[in-house]
Design brief:
It contains four helices and two strands. The chain has one domain. It starts with 16 loop residues before the first helix and ends in a 13-residue tail after the last helix. It is about 40% helix and about 10% strand. It has about 110 residues and is mainly alpha-helical. The protein is globular, with a radius of gyration of 15 Å.
C-alpha cells in the first residue's frame, strides 16, 4: 500500500515515511493487516488490503460487539464500501460464542 493511501484513525493521510513506518510497520499492526484486514478475491486472484477507514470501522464494530456482549447495530452510510466493511467483522467474530444471529438490512 503506498504511503499516501494510509491514514490514521482521524482519517488524516500519513505522508511522511518515518510516520508511516512507525504506525504501519510495527509488529502488531503489520501482523493484523496480514491476518485480519486483507481479503482474497479468488475470482480475480488478487489480495486486497482494506482501506484505512474500513479497518477503523471494522475495529469499531468488533469493539462495540464485545462491549455490548454480542449486540450491535452498526449503521453505514451510502457509498462507503459497505459490503466489505460489514462482512469482515463476521469473519473475525465467527467463533465468538456471544453471537447467536446476524441480520443484514440493506
Amino acid at each position: 500500500m503506498p504511503v499516501y493511501q494510509f491514514a490514521g484513525e482521524d482519517n488524516k493521510k500519513i505522508t511522511h515515511l518515518d510516520d508511516f513506518t512507525e504506525k504501519f510497520l510495527s509488529k502488531c499492526t503489520l501482523a493484523q493487516m496480514i491476518s485480519r484486514y486483507m481479503v482474497l478475491v479468488a475470482t480475480e486472484q488478487k489480495l486486497l488490503v482494506m482501506r484505512p477507514y474500513q479497518i477503523y470501522a471494522v475495529k469499531a464494530i468488533v469493539d462495540s460487539i464485545h462491549q455490548n456482549r454480542g449486540n450491535a447495530y452498526p449503521g453505514i452510510i451510502t457509498a462507503a464500501r459497505k459490503t466489505l466493511t460489514r462482512s469482515k467483522p463476521l469473519t473475525l467474530l465467527k467463533d465468538n460464542p456471544d453471537i447467536e444471529k446476524c441480520l443484514f438490512v440493506d
